[in-house]
Input
Amino acid sequence: MKKEIHKWFSSNLQKELKIAVYGHYGYALLLFPIAGTDFLEYERFHLIDSISRHIDDGVLKAFSVHGIDNESWLNKSLPPAKKAEKHQQYNSYIIDEVIPFIRENCRGVVQAVTAGASLGAFHAANTFFRRPDLFAGVIAMSGIYDLKYYTDGYFDDTCYFNSPVDYLSGLTDEKILADMKNKSIVIASGQGAYEDPGASRQLSNLLHSKNIPHWLDLWGDDMTHDWSTWRKMLPYFLDNINI
Output
């Protein structure tokens, strides 16, 4: 498997960040780490191995980014408003820096799908729902999509526009809704230890209320909030979505 590591100084986050790229060609799979960890997490826990067939066959090219949740919502010493500000800076890093890098690396505009597990599922979903014009779909595994879960009661406009269950509820823009309706949206969860399938149902019910087609897939009680679950889920969904 071809692997590259790229790095640059982020103007949005004011520090150097790295990104791992796996594969030669295919659509872009943008992977968000589970809890603010590093860009090699999915390789280290063998999730990249689990989708190696898709990479080696040229179905997709995977781009695994660094997370900063330890500097935002998981940073207990930072004031809530600063956490929200850091979160928004990360959004800008993804949209203004990572997406152009993906296009340059792929030598043109390519279809792109966001994906992630746990807190990475939140980022994958939030990135997709905020900018459905830029993405062909999302695979969100074992996530929670209400940002209030992480804000300890703080909630400003920045939080609102980064909390999918909140801003989707109030979304009436027909163009944005139309952008979502012809995309591949997967919301998945196990129902075993430490999973929260209710969060996936909540998002699914909201999407139903907006007539947005999607795939809610709740796996069994043996599927826990762990890598063994996500290593089974991701290749399965990649086999069964249309990009």
Summary: Residues 80-105 form the longest helix (26 residues).
